[in-house]
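In this supplementary section we document a worked example of the pipeline. Step one takes a protein sequence of length 158 as its only input; no multiple sequence alignment statistics are reported here. Step two produces a three-dimensional model, which step three serialises into structure tokens for compact storage. The input and output of this example are shown verbatim.
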Amino acid sequence: MTDIQLEVVGVRIELPANQPILLLKEASQARFLPIWIGSSEANAIGIALRGVTPPRPLSHDLMVNLIEEYGDTLESVHITEADSHTYYAELRTSGGHTVSARPSDAVAMALVAGCPVYTTAELMGQAGIEGPEPDEEEVAQFREFLDHVSPEDFEGES
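The serialised model returned by step three reads:
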């Protein structure tokens, strides 16, 4: 079975239900894996994505610290399957240990540990959604704009 590497795009809020969605993107194409998650998990992922170090370890920091304290490291996270709307994940360590986890917790830990997130081709085929391909010309124009813009260009605008 082929593993597909995922990038953590972020957490979005689905309206009108105000339900957080963890959005993962296939690294090699414009396919996305959306996973509905809880508010506290969304907050933890947001903190990790912003690179904020809290004054005291949050649960996900604590779990990564515990793994490391016992002489192991979190090597990768794998979103392994979905049953109805429930997703399952595994934490895999460099010492060969595998621990079952909720995807939201696993992704938060991956962000803290700086390790990759994967899923299976089968799960991506079942639950993945196609996204729009980026328009390369628009991207090039935007990069050109960013290369030449300065804060003074926005003075006096409101």
